[in-house]
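re: ur question from earlier - yeah i can do the single chain one, its not a big deal. heres the input i used so u can compare w yours
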Amino acid sequence: MAWSFHFVPLLFFFLLSSASALATSGHGSSGNATAMLRPGRELLRQRRIRALLGKLNKPSVKTIESPDGDFIDCVPSHLQPAFDHPKLRGQKPLDPPEERPKNYNSTVAGRSRAGAVVLQAWHAAGEACPEGTVALRRTTEKDLLRASSLGRYGRKPARRITRRDSTGSGHEHAVGYVNSEKYYGARASVNVCSPRIGDPSEFSLSQIWVLSGSFSNDLNTIEAGWQVSPELYGDSNPRFFTYWTTDAYQETGCYNHNCRGFVQTTNKIAVGAAITPESVYNGRQFDITLLIWKDPKHGHWWLELGPGVVVGYWPSGLFTHLAHHARMVQFGGEIFNAGARGSHTATQMGSGHFPGEGFDRAAYFRNLQVVDWDNSIIRASNLKLLADHPGCYDIKGGFNGYWGTYFYYGGPGRNMKCP
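and the output i got, formated as tokens:
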């Protein structure tokens, strides 16, 4: 028994000595020692991936395979990820409000394919999700393996900003904004483009922001639009997306259904799925109309992808400041510049062309409107324009009777004026 008592420490000493000898030998054995540990870390990562997939993907009654490689799961509406949120657990989706904001039917026509039904790539499969379900884009293991961090999967890169100008954070904007009233929603039409992305970890998007709170730490935002993000989606297709946060993008909120919160109510549109067709440079333009408004009855923020498809809502209880109203509304483009090459990114914003090129070439927002205290849609007057780096991405706006308040925006990123 005495022999066996001493055997364990002696064996441990022998193994420790052997590992030390291997680590100090000139045959690359330190790499082998590291490799011996790597399977354990990889196993842990795989377990985390499986657990996260289990949270994000819910049991479906039907799955539709999209021609672009997506899988659209038709999930019973009461089983969607939103209802895992502690404040929403046990609830069921609300019916869309019976009434839209006043002046809802005011013209949004323009020189584009306005009024056309919004199509997504998965619609080409010729199948639909049944009534009582919602169409959810499935998150795959490949999606998670592309993520730079599982802990921040589905979130914008963390940032701290003191005002709209995000210089130094990697996030660059060309936006129009209003901030002189209390706001209860916004509407605009934006053409859908396919900007080139300079680095897979970067993105380019065009959206509406509805904001309240301070930019430093308690910013509440609701966001919706289209986005190109190879890291998030695995391709360069423009995709319909949503976003929200209550703490300036630090710990709360996410894209689409990648965390609990946004409640989808439609089986016709899948958040995160590709939009088709796209605008063609010097050719036909295609735009979508987005409406975000706060329902006066229940206080929730609803999203419509026009014409007429109510996508879902952000429950009022998710927010602090936005539980009441917004203090700012923004329209425009954003890119993330990872700064990996020591020069400015070549990621494009909008169509990748400067606003001076005008219609058919530059990206645009038109018929910019806000929802006021009386639940009326009115023109977004006193619009201010801001471009963080005009030599990279610029913005120029105006007003006419055809497009209302509008602007052209975007640019190529790295060029002679943006080294």
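The first strand starts at residue 62 and ends at 65. not sure if urs matches, ping me
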